[in-house]
């Protein structure tokens, strides 16, 4: 749903149900409340005027046309309208599309029209997000052919994991004074061993925790960039099998138990092994897909 449609529908739901409006019925107030420019607000107001939900007074101000004002009793119930995806949401959605394309053996061209139809969005939204991904170096724009995605090579995986290992180990070292065992216990429970035949549990929040506790914004920025998101998405996709999830959970337990007991050297070694263990998992997926 586009911003204009979201704002119009949200206000319509409030008006028809008699729910108090979130702010004054003026363009600046609405723009401030929804955190947008005046353009989508003007479009939403135009729709509500056309529908008869609001009216323009002689002095130019806007007024609500409630059911009570029309001599009717409102029976409608307020239904919350989910907001449209943000730019960050679209980037995550399309990074996943890029990830799937990058697993193929040959380069893949992504087309704006096909992606827009698949995700029920406008081409301009898709184009803006793809442009950001191109700026991050994930894809290339080829005039009249779409957006080119190069296959991930195993050398790329190795290079990324080497950098990730260095930065996560540094994050662990920096985080040591701020690590609280009480924070780690829920993570340990989230990776607890399960009975045979039960679905394994996996809690990946340890990595984000160490990065956040490091207090180093350059480390944080590396893991927030689109390249890191792409590889994280690829690793998550590559490890759906129960035995792989169980192995990763066991690796997490080893790291967490060492951290809780302040065995820092053991924790570093376990974290390094865990990161390196992701290479063969993704390599196997690449081999399987590219042999089809």
Summarize it:
This protein is mainly alpha-helical and 292 residues long. The protein is 62% helix and 5% strand.
H and E string:
HHHEEHEHHEEHHHHHHHH
Output the structural class.
Answer: mainly alpha
Mean pLDDT: 91
Low-confidence stretches: none
Secondary-structure arrangement, i.e. CATH architecture of the largest domain: Up-down Bundle
Supply the CATH class of the largest domain.
Mainly Alpha
> What integer value in Å does the Rg equal?
25 Å
Question: What is the third-level CATH name, the topology of the largest domain?
Answer: Four Helix Bundle (Hemerythrin (Met), subunit A)
Described by the principal axes of the CA atoms, the overall outline is: globular
Integer count of domains: 3
Number of strands: 5
**Could you give the distance between the termini?**
37 Å
Full CATH superfamily name of the largest domain: GntR ligand-binding domain-like
Biggest sheet architecture: 3 strands, antiparallel
Care to describe what's here?
The chain is mostly helical and 292 residues long. The protein has three domains: 3-64, Winged helix-like DNA-binding domain superfamily/Winged helix DNA-binding domain (Arc Repressor Mutant, subunit A, Orthogonal Bundle); 87-149, Arc Repressor Mutant, subunit A (Orthogonal Bundle), CATH 1.10.10.10; 154-290, Four Helix Bundle (Hemerythrin (Met), subunit A) (Up-down Bundle), CATH 1.20.120. Helices cover 62% and strands 5% of the residues. It has a three-stranded antiparallel β-sheet. Strands 1-2 form a two-stranded antiparallel sheet. The longest helix has 22 residues, at 154-175. The radius of gyration is 25 Å and the shape is globular. The two termini are 37 Å apart. 22% of the residues are buried.
């Amino acid at each position: 749903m586009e911003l204009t449609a979201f704002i119009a529908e949200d206000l319509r739901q409030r008006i028809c149900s008699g729910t108090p409006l979130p702010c004054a019925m003026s363009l600046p107030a609405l723009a401030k409340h929804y955190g947008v420019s005046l353009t989508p607000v003007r479009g939403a107001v135009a729709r509500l005027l056309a529908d008869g939900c609001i009216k323009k007074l002689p002095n130019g101000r806007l007024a609500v046309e409630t059911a009570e004002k029309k001599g009717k009793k409102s029976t409608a119930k307020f239904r919350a309208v989910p907001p449209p995806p943000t730019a960050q949401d679209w980037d995550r959605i399309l990074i996943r599309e890029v990830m799937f394309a990058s697993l193929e053996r040959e380069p893949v061209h992504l087309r704006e029209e096909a992606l827009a139809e698949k995700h029920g969005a406008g081409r301009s939204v898709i184009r803006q997000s793809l442009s950001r991904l191109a700026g991050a170096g994930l894809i290339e724009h080829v005039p009249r052919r779409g957006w080119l995605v190069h296959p991930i090579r195993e050398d790329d995986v190795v290079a990324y994991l080497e950098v990730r290992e260095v930065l996560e180990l540094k994050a662990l070292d920096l985080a040591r004074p701020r690590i609280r065992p009480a924070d780690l216990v829920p993570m340990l429970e989230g990776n607890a061993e399960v009975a045979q035949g039960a679905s394994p549990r996996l809690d990946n929040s340890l990595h984000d925790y160490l990065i956040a506790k490091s207090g180093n914004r350059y480390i944080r920025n590396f893991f927030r960039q689109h390249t890191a998101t792409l590889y994280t998405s690829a690793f998550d996709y590559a490890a759906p099998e129960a035995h792989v999830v169980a192995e990763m959970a066991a690796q997490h337990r080893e790291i967490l138990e060492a951290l809780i007991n302040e065995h820092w050297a053991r924790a570093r070694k376990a974290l390094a092994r865990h990161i390196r263990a992701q290479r063969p998992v993704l390599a196997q997926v690449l081999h399987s897909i590219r042999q089809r």
